[in-house]
């Protein structure tokens, strides 16, 4: 291997790492992926979500991105609690994306339970909402 090919290889690797780091930064700071385990980034609001429930028969509705780790955690918790839910994957389904746009969803996960929506993920708050709406079967892991 000559010196020129070594430099080219190093430049390609550096560029790839830089793009990966930059993309990760943008995803984390764009607000598209919602909060983690703490209470920061989690917003709970009351409202009239009857149109959503008319479509799902009263199930919990979860708007997600296919690559979102917080969405995966929320879905795992709902499954663990034996909660029936409808998942709307906004990066894979154009209809779900249009619904999300109409609902002004700009971060995920967004979970609709009864007359309440939760933006972001926090295990304790989600279990509290499930209990409030008579959906939960167990307590959160400490």
Automatic annotation (TrEMBL):
Location of the Glutaredoxin domain: 60-116
InterPro entries tied to this protein: GLR_AS, Glutaredoxin, Grx-like_ET, Thioredoxin-like_sf
CDD domains assigned to the protein according to its UniProt record, in alphabetical order: NrdH
PANTHER family documented for this protein: GLUTAREDOXIN, GLUTAREDOXIN-LIKE PROTEIN NRDH
Protein name (Swiss-Prot/TrEMBL): Glutaredoxin family protein
Organism: Lysobacter gummosus
Lineage: Bacteria, Pseudomonadati, Pseudomonadota, Gammaproteobacteria, Lysobacterales
């Amino acid at each position: 291997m000559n010196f020129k090919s070594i430099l080219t290889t190093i430049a390609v690797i550096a560029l790839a790492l830089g793009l990966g780091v930059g993309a990760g930064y943008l995803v984390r700071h764009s607000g598209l992926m919602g909060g983690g385990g703490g209470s920061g980034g989690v917003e709970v609001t009351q409202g009239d979500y009857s149109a959503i429930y008319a479509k799902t028969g009263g199930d919990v509705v979860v708007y997600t991105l296919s690559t979102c780790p917080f969405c995966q955690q929320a879905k795992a918790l709902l499954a663990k609690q034996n909660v029936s839910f409808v998942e709307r994957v906004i990066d894979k389904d154009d209809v779900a994306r249009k619904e999300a746009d109409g609902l002004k969803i700009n971060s995920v996960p967004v979970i609709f339970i009864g007359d309440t929506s939760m933006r972001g993920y926090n295990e304790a708050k989600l279990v509290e909402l499930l209990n409030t709406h008579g959906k939960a079967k167990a307590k959160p892991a400490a």
